[in-house]
Write a sequence for this structure.
């Protein structure tokens, strides 16, 4: 399971968090970058939203995001729009999870 519950008696309050990412869309030799911004109220909301996206990809392609990402980094996947978006979503998941864990550890 991607999202691990973090049990802590004190959860810090966070203000607006923006999750930004670049999506590379590869169409033959034409690479276009599209920036997409999504606003979340807390880092937990952002983590949940990204986790839901990852679960949809995992269900669609019948593999974990970690397994996919390892293959993607080795060049063992297609450079499809889904692959690029899935890789970006997984990178965000890792970043958000580490950031949240770091903040929880600071108050623990």
């Amino acid at each position: 399971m991607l999202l691990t519950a973090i049990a802590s008696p004190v959860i810090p309050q966070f203000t607006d968090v923006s999750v930004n990412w670049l999506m590379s869309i590869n169409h033959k030799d034409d690479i276009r970058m599209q920036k997409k911004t999504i606003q979340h109220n807390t880092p937990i909301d952002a983590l949940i939203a990204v986790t839901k996206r990852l679960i949809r990809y995992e269900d669609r392609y019948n593999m974990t995001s970690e397994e996919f990402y390892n293959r993607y980094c080795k060049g063992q996947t297609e450079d499809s729009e889904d692959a690029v978006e899935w890789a970006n979503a997984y990178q965000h998941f890792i970043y958000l999870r580490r950031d949240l864990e770091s903040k929880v550890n600071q108050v623990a």
In short: Residues 1-33 have pLDDT under 50 and may be disordered. The two ends are 24 Å apart (CA to CA).
